[in-house]
Amino acid sequence: MSDIRQRDRIDIGAAQGAPLVDSFLRRISYLRLSVTDRCDLRCTYCMPERMTFLPKREVLSLEELYDLACGFIARGVTKIRVTGGEPLVRRDIVDLFAALGRKIGDGLEELTLTTNATQLAEHADALAKAGVRRVNVSLDTIDRETFAQLSRRDALPQVLEGIAAAKAAGLKVKLNAVALKDTNEDELPALIAWAHGQGHDVTLIEVMPLGDVEEERLDQYLPLDQVRSALSQRWTLTESAHRTGGPARYVDVAETGGRLGFITPHTDNFCEGCNRIRVTATGQLYPCLGGGERVDLRAALRSEAPQEELARAFDQAMLIKPEQHHFRMDRRGADPALARHMSMTGG
Ligand code: SAM
Ligand code: SF4
How close is the Cα of 205 to the center of ligand 1, in Å? Predict the structure, then answer.
């Protein structure tokens, strides 16, 4: 694929507009951009083994993704996290990173990604060269067998190689782990100790009822207050003032010398300070991960007057962003709170 900037296209980013502020006066500055719904793993809490993926024609081209990102930057988005599905399985994805990397210092302050790291070893240097400084790697266990059971693929060695390559390329790695009842529950201390030993912070996440995954959600759900209290029997946890602008709350772990975050959508609502929006690989803007509200940016982008239509769509998204999510984890056998999987909106 050629240099994305060289192509002859509409210049969405040239249309400056008012900063994005929702109806609860929250300033939106953080975009999570999903570049594919496909993935090379099948994490049991994320998708079923036989997942139906979108036909490729429905997915935005890399040029369209770039145009959209520029449109958001023109409206005051300063941080973009590329996600998926697994972003690194998309062909030529490093071209998008390279193009977006050139916007750093020109409106964009930070370009990052969330990855399962199976292909990170191959791409770490190119990502660093593009201007990526930090990556979030999803890793729920460092036990090979549990990893294979959890992700339905025996890929832990590649993942560890990917993490090592990222570190060698100078990328700061943060690990995210979904805490799952009976599955990785007993292995979380080993994961945290290993990560802190490698110099990586870890954030634990409660499972969310997104999409049908062929397993009972309530059997997966492990409240993080339980995890925290078990960890505090083992280690000295001290509240930390550290914040990343996201929903995580942190503690310092005295014995490992590392930092541990908790994201608790169920036990603690964190929506008040939400500064983010999400766009799927088909260009659907979801102003809330936990809501069904959406605006079709692909239609706007492919319309006769893309600049005007996109501006209108962005404004509409600000009007419909809900005050808070409505996840519930209190009913056995309930349908998923939302039919779409996390791999659509990228977590
Ligand atoms: N494939 C990449 C990865 O795994 O990092 C990026 C996309 S993945 C959907 C983003 C994040 O969502 C991962 O950290 C994953 O663990 C998390 N996730 C997926 N399904 C989830 C669910 N139902 N509840 C909570 N987190 C979930
Ligand atoms: Fe793939 Fe990430 Fe979902 Fe796991 S969590 S199946 S790696 S998209």
Answer: 9
Q: How far is CA 144 from CA 102, 105, 154, 185, 266, in A?
A: 38, 41, 7, 15, 29
pLDDT tens digits for 4-52? 755 445 566 555 678 999 888 899 999 999 999 999 999 999 999 999 8
- The strand pair at 110-115 and 172-179 is best described as unpaired
Tokens of 234: 């083992």
Count of positions (residues) in the chain: 347
What is the torsional sign of CA 124, 127, 132, 137? negative
Q: Does residue 160's CB lie within 6 angstroms of at least one atom of ligand 2? A: no
DSSP state of 13: G
Separation of 11 CA from ligand 1 center, angstroms?
32
What is 2-345's CATH topology?
Answer: TIM Barrel (3.20.20)
**Tens of pLDDT, residues 70-89:** 999 999 999 999 999 999 99
Which-ligand-closest: CA of 264? Answer: 1
